[in-house]
Amino acid sequence: MKKTAAPMLKCVVNGVKVSRAIDSGLTLSDFLRGELHLTGTKTGCNQGECGACVVVVDGKAVNSCLYMAVQANGKKVITIEGLKGKNGDPHPLVQAFADEGAVQCGFCTPGMIMSAYALLLANPAPSRAEIKQALSGNICRCTGYEMIFSAVEKAAGLLRGRGGK
Ligand code: FES
Ligand code: FES
Q1: Which site in 26, 68, 85, 148 is 20 to 30 Å from 163, CA atoms measured?
Q2: Domain limits at 114?
Q3: Residue 6, number of CB atoms within 10 A of its CB
Q4: Could you tell me the pLDDT band of residue 20, with boundaries at 50, 70 and 90?
Q5: Cα–Cα dist 86/120, whole Å
Q6: Best probe residue, ligand 2, of 45, 104, 149 (max atoms within 8 Å of C-beta)
Q7: Is 3 contained in some domain?
Q8: Domain boundary, last residue among 51, 82, 113
Q9: Does ligand 1 lie within 6 Å of residue 82's CB atom?
């Protein structure tokens, strides 16, 4: 029987064009971690329940453990490694998480930050309730969440102060 060719995935990851033949059953998280070695994206439950694996695809937060890599074809993917501040500084979200003590073991942090990043793209001045709602799919076992919400508020203010970048 003739073997079908593996699908090609062409996308942009953290500003870099990627073109690969991939297994059609590969999840985006396995593609990012296993093929591109972007291991900042974590996997916990692999069932869409913890949010550790959140990345941003075309401006929207997605659980990359459930999102098939082929679905990213033609799209722009941003992972925690792609968040950069100006002049080599940490991105304001990363800085605010550090400043507010919003990181303890750090396992949830990349997913939290990417969910927050997608929120701030859509809504530069979210209320506390909107932040809680946007992060409701991200589980943190360590911090009690309040410092995380404060960090997102702080980063939103910093980003507004410099035109959203
Ligand atoms: S690993 Fe994707 S939601 Fe938990
Ligand atoms: S800092 Fe440990 S799970 Fe959130």
Answers
A1: 148
A2: 86-161
A3: 13
A4: very high
A5: 17
A6: 104
A7: no
A8: 82
A9: no
